[in-house]
Design a protein that fits this description.
Elements (H helix, E strand, L loop, with lengths): L2 E6 L2 E6 L9 H16 L5 E6 L24 H9 L5 E5 L2 E3 L1 H8 L2 E4 L4 E3 L13 H9 L1 H10 L3 E2 H4 L10 E2 L6 H15 L19 H15 L5 H14 L2 H16 L2 H16 L17 E4 L3 H12 L4 E4 L3 H20 L5 H9 L1 E4 L10 E4 L5 H14 L5 E4 L6 H6 L7 E6 L8 E5 L6 H13 L3 E5 L5 H20 L3 H11 L5 H8 L1 H14 L8 H7 L12 E2 L8 E2 L1 H14 L8 H22 L5 H11 L9 H8 L1 H12 L13 H8 L7
Helix pairs in contact: 1-2, 2-3, 3-4, 4-5, 4-9, 5-9, 8-9, 9-10, 11-25, 12-13, 18-24, 19-24, 26-27
The protein binds 1,4-dihydronicotinamide adenine dinucleotide.
Length: about 700
Amino acid sequence: MTAHYQTHGEVAVITLDNPPMNGMGLSTRRAAVQALQRAQDDPAVRAIVIAGAGKVFSSGADIKEFGSPKAYQEPNLLGLIRACEASPKPVLAAMHGVCMGGGLELALGCHYRIAAPGTRMALPEVKLGLIPGAGGTQRLPRALGVEPALNLIVSGEPVASELLAQLPGQKLFDRIAASNDTLLDEALALAREVAQRHADGTPLPRVRDLPCQHPQGEAYFQFARNMAKGMAPRYPAPLKCIDAVELATHKPFEDGLALEREMFVNLMHTPESMALRHVFAAERAASKIADVPADTPTRPIRSVAVIGAGTMGGGIAMNFLNAGIPVVLLEQQQAALDRGLAIIHKNYQAQVSKGKLKQDKLDQRLALLRSTLSYADLADADLVIEAVFEDMGVKEQVFKQLDAVMKPGAILASNTSTLDLNRIAGFTRRPQDVVGLHFFSPANVMKLLEVVRGAQTAPDVLATVMALGKTIKKTCVVSGVCDGFIGNRMLEQYVRQAGFLLDEGCTPQQVDRALEQFGFAMGPFRVGDLAGNDIGWAIRKRRYVEKPEVRYSKTADLLCELGRFGQKTGAGWYDYAPGKRDPIPSPLVQQLIEQNRQQIGVQPRAISDEEIVQRMVFALVNEGAHLLQEGIAAKAGDIDMVYLTGYGFPVWRGGPMHYADQFGLFNVVQAMRRFARNPHDDASFWQPAPLIERLLAEGRTFTG
Ligand code: NAI
């Protein structure tokens, strides 16, 4: 059973018990309705308490039922709430830990509410592109006041119970308990008290009967709309939250409830909500590996060593210091070590000056950092992460040394972005302990961590680094071994298309603008200037030798031959005023583009933004499909998480693979066939990956 029934004298206690968050799934709703009925039928019961087992009251919807018909099957949440509200015996909610979404809507349907201090109260539906759909927008403004209720509903952010309880005139809480431990006893006492109070037939208080007004409603809601449009212009849900709360101020309760439902159902079908719900599920699924069970034992990671204090090493070290894990940082020379340490100090100091970090916390973190020039000082680390030059010879030296000094059972990780992890593992006598941890730059900021699984990486090593990834607040996605792993292998095709678009008639600013209007944080040429165009140049030079048959636009090479590596050299695809980062279209770059067009004999043509976006995004999709087929990526949702957290893909589009599903795989294939007929593009690349053809034939999608 996912809800239990117990009596304490004249009070029945219904305990929601659906771990881990007491989600209001079908079985929980059924059990709660049955328990409620049992309490009604028992003449000895005079009041009913609804509580949550474990650490929380309820987080609302059961994510296991997400999107399945079960979520709406009777008794649905609205039915359960109605049953509580209509109960002739007083029903009390006793909340602790977390009371969110449907959990809070249920509590609002009860006659009385008591909460432990520190209970996180929220209606987070807006984060999934929705509005609360079980009365939250109609009851919360009545219980809490219009302004704080709207704030909670539009932000979706939690607020602690004791803070909300201080709001003047609030009716959300009848009482705040002394602590989690005393909550049940205090709830039972309150239940007895109210049973007595209503023994003479005094009507039970219902939130729906409370007045709901705002003295300057029209102006207030207008302000709120302006704010929401400014802050979240791409999302429809915040405006609908405002509409729904406004309804509560001037419509009878039942009418408001019906309209809220209608808005909720309509939002469920918006592309934005479908994308956000996909991302929510994909993020959780990414942390699971099919052949590594959740109960796989992990190795304790009490200390970490980082080798190389360059661009990546320092940022990688900061992740662990931030999580309270001691780090020893190794370099080959004192000067390099000093440089790396200075950057770590500078980054932390910047956080202190911005008020994001307190000085005492900084001191605590820095006290965990040691530095060394000697491998002997790493021997006891539980995990070592190598971030030295991207050169197989250097990696070989480093891993042979690590193999010699590290204690048995230590995990040996490489941050390589392109090299063959299996070869690196082969430099040791313990390939089972070797794994790739591909951080993104800046490593202390970027959410994405590609966990690269070598042919021999042991399951407990994978389980350990996935858990550790969570500790350092990364989104971990597992990738198999290939050149570029998931993210950069796809990026290469995306950037290749950007080059062809220049050859055929675009300017860098047109391509960037089209992608930014699509929703990317930055277009490909601005990204190139930020990251350094020399990185791609080095990769292309390697490709010209390894894969001479693959064609690239030569404009980028002309650019790099002039030393225009981007912001770091003061010029790249754009010009930059000294000390500024604003891109200025460059006449010189335009000349390079035209020079290259003449060399390859292309007459420029006008290219629509639609073609730009489709070629760039479907290049990601086709390469993503190959990665799935090869088993490098396990799930389409993993690819989406890589692009959302590491490459600035717009969240409301759900990632490239979800976007392709929404666009329709038939339409995607049609577009690819069209691109394949373009003589200046790469016809062989645009052959749809066999996986896409198969899904299409079977009427399936990547993410469905
Ligand atoms: P970097 O050149 O900034 O830093 C490398 C550091 O390693 C230097 O400080 C160097 O003195 C040190 N080093 C070289 N050989 C060493 C040895 N034998 N023992 C100890 N220290 C040694 O390079 P960066 O950019 O930090 O890259 C490091 C690794 O991270 C590479 O494998 C790279 O492919 C990868 N990576 C780089 C990203 C980036 O955006 N820069 C992103 C993701 C991965």
